[in-house]
Specification:
The chain is α+β, with helices and mostly antiparallel strands and 214 residues long. It has a single domain, classed as Beta-lactamase (3-Layer(aba) Sandwich). Helices cover 32% and strands 15% of the residues. It is built from six helices and eight strands, in the order ββαααββααββββα. Strands 5-6-7-8 form a four-stranded antiparallel beta sheet, with helices on both faces. The protein has a two-stranded antiparallel sheet with strand order 1-2. Strands 3-4 form a two-stranded antiparallel ribbon. The chain is globular.
Length: 214
């Protein structure tokens, strides 16, 4: 979320800030956040294996990669009551489909228009005016960059971790390429594995030397 009470606007990063957006959406639409996400995000984008529900169905539970501490499976499945603050279950393929919206001027891989090209450019691919930070809404840029527009050959990225899991996403709008990595462990080796996969992908796709995905 962006603090606008200061001049210039300052970034105040915390996943919990998105609970404000969640409360606004529920109050404004009269819908639960779960119904709102399914109707306006998951279904239009094409994310059949994604859920914001705290309690997964039996089928969904059977498909979840069990979380590990190091190499040891955790005893319980970790659920979150904060859908817009790290509480969404998803697959790498579904996450990639969401990333494609940012890469493809607001259009999903299935052709559905999710965001206008203007919204995609000004809210995701460019940092807020006068903010002075290297990030958009929910994505980060390489240090010092305030835009990852088409033609800049820069990348946006986001990583995340919770007890027993780590993830990393990176996309390059100039080349229309990106990668999503999910690991069901939070051990130090998980971060090493993600870094190695990311480096191998960037080399394989001939991304520019020095392009920052972390």
């Amino acid at each position: 979320m962006w603090q606008v009470a200061t001049s210039p606007a300052a970034a105040d990063y915390d996943s919990a800030n998105y609970l404000i957006a969640q409360a606004y959406l529920e109050d404004r639409t009269g819908e639960t956040i779960h119904d709102w996400l399914s109707l306006r995000v998951f279904n239009p984008i094409g994310m059949p294996d994604t859920s914001s529900r705290i309690a997964l169905t039996t089928t969904q539970q059977a498909e979840v990669a069990w979380r590990h501490s190091g190499s040891v499976p955790q005893q319980f499945m970790l659920n979150s009551a904060w859908p817009l603050a790290g509480g969404i279950w998803s697959s790498a393929q579904d996450y990639a489909n969401a990333m494609i919206v940012a890469l493809n001027v607001g259009k999903a891989a299935n052709g559905n228009s999710i965001l206008t090209s203007s919204t995609n450019r000004n809210r995701i691919l460019r940092s807020p005016a006068e903010s002075g930070v290297s990030s958009g809404w929910g994505v980060m840029y390489e240090l010092g960059a305030t835009s990852v527009d088409e033609g800049t050959n820069r990348s946006f990225w986001h990583n995340g971790a919770n007890s027993g899991a780590r993830t990393h996403m990176c996309g390059n709008p100039t080349t229309n390429q990106g990668i999503v990595i999910m690991v069901n462990s939070d051990a130090a080796g998980a971060s090493t594995l993600i870094s190695e996969i990311l480096a191998a992908y960037m080399a394989r796709m001939n991304w520019a030397a020095g392009l920052d995905c972390t």
